[in-house]
Amino acid sequence: MTHSHNLLGEPPATLLPGDPEAEAALAAGTDPAEVAAGHPRASAAWAALAEAALGGGRTIEAYAYARTGYHRGLDALRKNGWKGYGPVPWSHEPNRGFLRCVTVLARAAEVIGEVDEQERCTQLLRDCDPTLVP
């Protein structure tokens, strides 16, 4: 007899620590490029740059910013115990920079015809927090 469920259960949610200085600077309206330069590990700064670029029709620029924030976020997740799978909930504010970067990366990848990457990013979002992708 086989079972299709994981007997070990789902790993605990990964909750990234915040970066209060970077978050305060972004909230105060500081140019995200300035925040990213001063806090290069802050995925929220890269997400803001990526979203602005995508909104301005600068897809390749958005892709590059989003990929940078995505990799910075992966580094932070791993440093905080993430094993490459498991919940990374949107409800935890410090996780949002990473999740926003993955979202923009998926959209930019779709625009430039990188369907495989778009699908991987969409699946990653589903795996991190199923409420993010219908």
Arithmetic mean pLDDT? 94
Assembly category: single chain
Question: What shape does the CA trace take?
Answer: globular
- How many strand elements? 0
- The ordered H/E elements are HHHHHH
Number of domains: 1
Beta-strand fraction estimate? under 5%
Write the layout of secondary structure elements.
Layout: H1 20-27, H2 32-38, H3 43-55, H4 59-79, H5 96-111, H6 115-128
Helix pairs in contact: 2-3, 3-4, 3-5, 4-5, 5-6
Overview of this protein structure:
Helix 3 packs antiparallel against helix 4. This protein has 134 residues and is mainly α. The protein has one domain (38-132). It is globular. The chain has 6 helices and no strands. This is DUF3151 domain-containing protein. It holds the Pfam family DUF3151.
Please summarize what this structure is:
With 134 residues, the chain is an all-alpha fold. The protein is built from six helices and no strands.
Question: Features of this protein?
Answer:
single chain, 134 residues, mainly alpha, 6 helices, globular
